[in-house]
Every structure is written in structure tokens, then in C-alpha cells.
């Protein structure tokens, strides 16, 4: 019996010595796996998590040079005033800038109509842009409430007009939904559409969606279905990012002509993104193409049924960024909107054409009564 026990001990001792190299290799493999895992997690954190926002006025952040108001939640909103002094102004208009721009996008204020009609303009940096604090909880509704508070603190009266360009047009939709009682009139210039508004017929949606560059189709899918990937998608080097984020939008010939007239100037782009691209450009994509709390074609009513105001949509028929077919459909579903289609015009028609800017103001303030 004892011989059997001794033989068993010898057997396991001998084989344990044989397994020792294998165990050492296994331990080394495990250590290598841990090292690789830690390395991957470090890379993933760097790739997927945006860098800390450089908030204006904070240590190491950009300086605050212009006026700002303090909002209900402690954030600050930067603004700029144009036109005649508000004390003698007959009309007061808040301007909402587009994607990658800022309060300096106020060319519509630079017309002789400002003096002729006594117009006071207020432009502002949307949250995360320019000198306005970021809003990690930003939604279409929250920006509309920011605008209402801006009007209150600047003393623009019970009602004011609002004009939104491109991505700023989405903000105007939000104002029509959430603060219609504060509006005297509204104009949306080439407003960006959310392809996931359910009222779009599937065939029309599909046709318009596939007019976009393939890289933009993917970027929009990410923004809608996986917003937590937006930063990585637009900063990685494996696939093309959004053409707009990358500075190569799908501009058509009319737009390229306008851009060439600027001689390559950045139009204050550095100022607009000085706090970082995540809380400005990327947040815009997540909000603009994410899940909305309403569908404009289904959930909006005419805020001016008494005839004391009007809503206008202006759209170029050669816009390469916003399909004209979708804009026409929106206007058809909302017959109270006054739809203006500009022939031979792209996305930027209101930037350089003074006649278009004058027409927008005249229709909003005079004809639209």
C-alpha cells in the first residue's frame, strides 16, 4: 500500500517538473495579455474620450473679450449687438449661426435696411462655440430656452424675431415648438434637416439621404445611432470623417464661387472652435441628427394664426448639403410656412448676396404681416 502511495507521489512530482516550463510560458502569456489589455484600454480611452474642453476664462482657456449673460444654470452666453440701438429700434432680431461659425456670422445685419427700418440685431455664440460655455446636456429645447433668456436679459421685449442659418435653422424649429409665444416672426435659411424625422416618406428619405457623400452618410448614422462614437469617428484616420467637419463639404458650383470671393479667409473659424471641436461641432451633430422630442411636420402649429407674424423658409435649388426635395416636402406639409426657393443658388447664397439678405428681411418684417 505504501509503495503505491510513494509511486503516486513520484509520478506527480516527475510530471510537475515536466509541466513547470509550460506553466512558466502560460504565466508569461498571461502577463503579455494583461499588458496588451492595459495598452488597448489606454488607447481606447484616448481615442473615444474627447479631451477636456478649454472653457473660456478658465486656467489655460481662451480669454473672454466680449459681453456675456449668465443663464439659469450658471452657464454664460456670449453675444454681440448690431444695427440701430435697441432703444429706438422698431424691430429686434436674434440671429442664430450655423455649423462651425459664431456670433460673427451676422452679415444680414450689414445692409442699409438696418438703418432704414430701424432694426436692432443680436447675434450670439451657441453653447460650446466662441465664448459661450459648453452645455453637455444641450438639446433643441435647451437652446430655445437659452434664446428666450437672452431676449429677457437684453430687454428685447415680449416678442422678437429670429433668423437661423443652416444648423441654426434647426434651433429656429425648436423655438417654434418651445417658445412660440415669444416670436414676432421667424426665418429659416437653408435649414439643415434631420433625416430621422418620421414624417418623411421612406422613398423620398432614401433618395435624399443617398445624395449625400458616402462618408457623410456614415457620419450621420454614427451621430444618430451611436453618438458616443462621434468624437472617435471624426478624429480617427482609418475612414473618412464627416466632410463638413473635415472642411471639405459637398458644396456646389454657386457655393464654390462664393467661397473663392473670400480669398481663403476662415470667417472666424478659429474663434468659433477655440474651446474644442467636441462641444461645438460634434455636439451639433449629436443634437441635430439625434432623437428629437418632436417632428416639425407633425407637431408644429401655426404660431401666427392671427396674421400678426409669419414663418419663412429660404432654400437654394442647388444646395449640396440640404436636399431641396426634403425642404419642398416640409413646406407642403406645413402650408402656413412661406417657402422661398432661390434659383441657381447653393447653401451659402445668403452669405454673399446682399439682394437675398434684403429680400429675407423685407419678407419677414414687411410683406409677412
Fold and architecture overview:
By secondary structure, the chain is an alpha/beta fold. It has a domain at 68-200 and 272-367: Alpha/Beta hydrolase fold, catalytic domain (Rossmann fold, 3-Layer(aba) Sandwich). The protein contains 14 helices and eight strands. The protein has helices at residues 2-48, 113-116, 140-153, 167-178, 202-209, 214-225, 230-233, 253-261, 269-272, 278-288, 296-299, 324-333, 349-352, 354-367, and strands spanning 68-70, 76-83, 91-96, 119-124, 160-165, 183-189, 311-316, 337-342. It has an eight-stranded mixed beta sheet with strand order 1-2-4-3-5-6-7-8, with helices on both faces. Helix 3 (140-153) packs across helix 4. The protein starts with a helix and ends with a helix. The relative contact order is 0.13. Residues 1-16 and 33-46 have low confidence and may be disordered.
Amino acid at each position: 500500500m505504501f509503495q503505491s502511495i510513494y509511486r503516486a507521489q513520484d509520478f506527480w512530482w516527475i510530471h510537475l517538473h515536466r509541466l513547470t516550463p509550460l506553466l512558466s510560458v502560460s504565466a508569461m502569456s498571461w502577463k503579455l495579455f494583461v499588458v496588451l489589455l492595459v495598452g488597448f484600454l489606454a488607447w481606447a480611452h484616448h481615442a473615444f474620450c474627447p479631451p477636456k474642453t478649454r472653457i473660456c476664462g478658465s486656467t489655460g482657456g481662451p480669454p473672454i473679450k466680449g459681453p456675456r449673460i449668465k443663464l439659469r444654470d450658471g452657464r454664460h452666453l456670449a453675444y454681440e449687438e448690431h444695427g440701430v440701438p435697441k432703444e429706438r429700434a422698431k424691430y429686434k432680431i436674434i440671429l442664430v449661426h450655423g455649423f462651425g461659425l459664431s456670433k460673427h456670422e451676422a452679415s444680414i445685419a450689414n445692409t442699409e435696411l438696418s438703418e432704414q427700418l430701424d432694426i436692432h440685431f443680436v447675434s450670439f455664440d451657441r453653447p460650446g462655440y466662441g465664448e459661450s460655455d459648453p452645455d453637455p446636456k444641450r438639446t433643441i429645447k435647451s437652446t430655445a430656452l437659452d434664446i428666450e433668456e437672452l431676449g429677457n436679459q437684453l430687454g428685447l421685449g415680449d416678442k422678437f424675431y429670429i433668423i437661423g442659418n443652416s444648423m441654426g435653422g434647426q434651433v429656429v424649429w425648436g423655438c417654434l415648438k418651445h417658445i412660440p409665444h415669444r416670436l414676432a416672426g421667424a426665418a429659416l435659411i437653408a435649414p439643415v434637416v434631420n433625416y430621422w424625422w418620421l414624417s418623411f416618406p421612406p422613398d423620398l428619405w432614401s433618395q435624399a439621404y443617398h445624395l449625400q457623400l458616402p462618408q457623410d452618410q456614415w457620419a450621420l448614422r454614427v451621430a444618430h445611432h451611436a453618438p458616443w462614437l462621434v468624437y472617435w469617428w471624426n478624429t480617427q484616420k482609418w475612414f473618412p470623417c464627416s466632410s463638413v467637419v473635415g472642411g471639405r463639404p459637398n458644396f456646389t458650383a454657386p457655393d464654390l464661387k462664393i467661397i473663392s470671393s473670400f480669398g481663403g479667409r476662415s470667417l472666424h473659424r478659429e474663434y468659433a472652435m477655440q474651446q474644442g471641436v467636441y462641444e461645438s461641432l460634434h455636439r451639433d451633430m449629436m443634437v441635430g441628427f439625434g432623437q428629437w422630442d418632436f417632428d416639425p411636420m407633425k407637431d408644429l402649429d401655426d404660431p401666427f394664426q392671427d396674421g400678426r407674424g409669419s414663418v419663412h423658409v429660404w432654400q437654394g435649388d442647388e444646395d449640396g448639403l440640404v436636399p431641396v426635395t426634403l425642404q419642398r416636402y416640409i413646406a407642403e406639409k406645413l402650408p402656413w410656412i412661406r417657402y422661398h426657393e432661390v434659383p441657381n443658388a447653393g447653401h451659402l447664397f445668403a452669405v454673399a448676396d446682399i439682394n437675398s439678405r434684403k429680400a429675407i428681411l423685407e419678407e419677414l418684417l414687411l410683406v409677412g404681416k
